[in-house]
Design brief:
The chain is an alpha/beta fold. Helix content is 46%, strand content 18%. Helix 1 packs across helix 12 and helix 5 runs antiparallel to helix 9. It binds D-malate. The site of D-malate (MLT) has 6 residues, from loops.
Length: 269
């Protein structure tokens, strides 16, 4: 992995291959390793940039982030700063998984001229309900006292389908290891940021770039129905349901996700 100092934080990122630039934004509580199969598949024909977002993986966050939270627009601004710092001047194909999707919406809002096409993957356009928001803020307080193990226990059944949890221990282990490497301060920062994210549903009609909307057929967090609704509201989007996958499509059915992305990327050139 490469890394770069951006003001107070050090951002780690994968940067592999040459060709059209594809940026992969990971979800919560994960890091760029959740995209490993796609980094391998896409970097044969594309330049793939996959940051560990502020605090996650090998990146650092600012001391105040845990208490103040990191907004989705702050993560988006970090990604824009990274692209600027490594001299990526061309438009990018931006893919955002789950929390990475919340960040993707903000990136398109803040830097529309930087986006050639985009891929919301297993994500949502709506904000948290008041109850979900309270739950996140409570968990942000608790994780600082109790550590990440309760988060892992709560998240695994939401991230992976029952089929994967029962039959594919290697995926369960991989996702668990990635979650276990997150610090409580990083988890608290992102929970507080997700809790205050805005509802972008009414803005979807203004996101005019070509889009590919991906959803796991058994996704328990962002259902295929909800994601089909997002695709319907986007002016220029195609929807693909990924079979044999829960929320973590990139690891549960990596071949289908990579094939869908490669086909979409080819159409943009
Ligand atoms: C994710 O996978 O990034 C999270 O589940 C998103 C969320 O908690 O809303």
């Amino acid at each position: 992995m490469k890394s770069i100092q951006l003001g107070a934080i050090n951002l780690a990122y994968e940067d592999q291959g040459t060709g059209p630039v594809v940026v992969l934004l990971h979800g919560y509580p994960l890091d760029s390793r959740m995209w490993q199969p796609q980094i391998d598949a896409l970097s044969k024909t594309c330049r793939v940039i996959a940051p560990d977002l502020r605090g996650f993986g090998q990146s650092t966050q600012a001391p105040e982030d845990a208490a103040s939270g990191v907004s989705m627009s702050r993560y988006a601004a970090d990604v824009a700063e990274l692209l600027r710092a490594i001299d990526v001047t061309e438009q990018v194909i931006l893919c955002g998984f789950s929390m990475g999707g919340y960040i993707l919406w903000q990136f398109i809002r803040q830097f529309p001229e930087r986006v050639k096409a985009f891929v919301p993957c297993d994500t949502r356009a709506i904000a948290d309900t008041a109850e979900a928001r309270q739950g996140r803020l409570k968990t942000a307080d608790e994780v600082m006292k109790s550590g990440v193990e309760p988060i892992i226990t709560a998240m695994l059944p939401k991230l992976l389908s029952e089929r994967t949890r029962n039959a594919r221990p290697e995926i369960v282990e991989k996702v668990t290891a990635i979650m276990r490497s997150c610090s409580p301060a990083t988890i608290a920062a992102s929970l507080r940021g997700m809790a205050v994210r805005s509802d972008v549903t009414t803005e979807l009609a203004s996101f005019t770039q070509p889009a590919l909307v991906l959803s796991g057929a058994e996704d328990a967090i962002s259902s295929p129905e909800e994601m089909r609704g997002i695709a319907d509201k986007l002016p220029n989007a195609k929807f693909i349901e990924i079979p044999r996958a829960g929320h973590m499509t990139t690891l549960e059915n990596p071949e289908a996700v990579s094939a869908a992305l490669l086909d979409f990327i080819k159409r943009q050139s």
